[in-house]
Design a protein that fits this description.
two-stranded antiparallel ribbon, 30% helix, 6-stranded mixed beta sheet, single chain, alpha+beta
Length: 227
């Protein structure tokens, strides 16, 4: 399938709306549940780029919370201490410590719960049951991930009376080298931003203090990642 009809465009009056592949290839995404709109897919594809790059840079399961094509927060899968669990309102989630992916989303969602209210979620790994339980109880518009366990899908199927947006993406999909977009009928074109962000960028420390802790390296890489 190389095109997908959307609920509507940026606004309800902007119909028809669709996403499609200009070269006739199959879309790298599949809607498993719900009916996403134009902004939903802008959030989905931009947020997926972020968690994919974050996982590649740090080698850790990653999650982000997106609102209107901007990340409210992003995090990697590290266990939360008791105080942080309480601050992120996840101290009652059974099995949280056993799911790095759920820890990543708990951190991302908990960073700014007001901004994340009604978010779009991106996960770098297939969604597991613990992560799905966490997602199910939060107010959000949808989720994109490279896969979903049977248990996770069953949980998400009950969210919003079966209307919750669940999107699966091919993790091996790579965009074309040239990217284009239209603004007011004019087409813009540029090369895809494929600059690698990793620890090698932080090797040339120009200050007298050259001791850069691993936690600082991780946080700096996260902050340098772009969309």
């Amino acid at each position: 399938m190389n095109e997908l009809l959307l609920k509507y465009g940026c606004n309800p009056n902007q119909k028809p709306a669709r996403i499609f592949m200009e070269d006739g290839a199959d879309l790298p995404v599949q809607v498993l549940q719900g009916r996403p709109g134009y902004i939903n897919f802008l959030d989905a594809l931009n947020s997926w780029q972020l968690v994919k790059e974050l996982k590649a840079a740090l080698g850790l399961p990653s999650a982000t919370s997106f609102k209107h094509v901007s990340p409210t927060s992003a995090a990697v899968g590290r266990k939360l201490g008791d105080k942080l669990k309480r601050a992120c309102f996840v101290d009652d989630v059974d099995g949280l410590d056993d799911s790095p992916l759920a820890c990543a989303y708990a951190r991302a969602r908990g960073t700014d719960r007001m901004s994340s209210f009604g978010d779009w979620i991106a996960l770098s790994e297939p969604c597991d049951e613990v992560t799905a339980r966490l997602i199910r109880r939060e107010v959000s518009d949808g989720v994109i991930a490279p896969g979903y366990s049977k248990e996770a899908l069953a949980l998400l199927a009950r969210k919003k009376n079966g209307n919750y947006n669940v999107v699966q993406i091919d993790p091996d999909y790579l965009p074309a080298e040239l990217e284009r977009k239209q603004v007011f009928g004019i087409t813009f074109e540029q090369g895809h931003n494929n600059c690698a962000i990793d620890a090698s960028l932080l090797q040339n420390i120009v200050t007298k203090c050259r001791d850069l802790p691993a936690d600082a390296v991780r946080d700096l890489i996260l902050s340098l990642l772009r969309l």
